[in-house]
Amino acid sequence: MTPPEVNLKRPRVLISVEDLERRITELAAEIDRDYAGSEPILCIGVLKGSVFFMVDLLKQVQTPLQIGFFQTSSYGSSTTAGEIRIRKDVDISVRDRDVLLIEDIVDTGYTLRTIMALLEFRGARSVKLCTMLDKVAAREVEVPIHYTGFQIDNVFVVGYGLDLDDHFRNLPYIGVYEGDVE
Fold first, then answer.
1. pLDDT of residue 155
2. CA torsion angle 177 178 179 182 (round to 10)
3. pTM, full prediction
4. What is the pLDDT of residue 79?
5. CATH 3.40.50.2020 fits 17-73+85-176, yes or no
6. By C-alpha distance, which of 173, 172, 169 is closest to 6?
7. Burial readout 18-37 (b: 16 or more C-beta within 10 A, e: otherwise)
8. 137 with 153: CB under 8 angstroms?
9. Which of 10, 29, 40, 161 could form a disulfide with 52 if both were Cys (CB 3.0 to 4.6 A apart)?
């Protein structure tokens, strides 16, 4: 049953299907260029939002790779920003591996900074971040982003993996949600 507070009106298109496809093709080419001749890269998607982007991106990457997943959640509002709980840890060793971390959106930066530091602590040879969306205006801590799909304004977006209470993930485009967000 749909919670009454979620307005399921279609969000306004911000990034079209065609623009997503074009940019993902470009990102795949950049990744192939940067990892040419390397050992298989370990591509780690941050669940759940990155799945649509990750699948479409990695179908076009020609460089040998392996896939893993990582899922986190924040501890809650009463704790320090950046504290996260690991809900699903990557099940492939990162030691001495080139890791490409794939995320749907970089917002404040706290979660990504923590994940990247953890991967480095575990002995990854390199950790690069690929994000579909970069919301620069929301950034509170610096995070090195190596591959960016699109920079967006500080708006609430849904679709193409991004959600509001698990709604809208399956939209084929990225849209601006114009209802109330708590």
1. 94
2. 70
3. 0.90
4. 45
5. yes
6. 169
7. eebeebbeebbeebeeebee
8. yes
9. 161
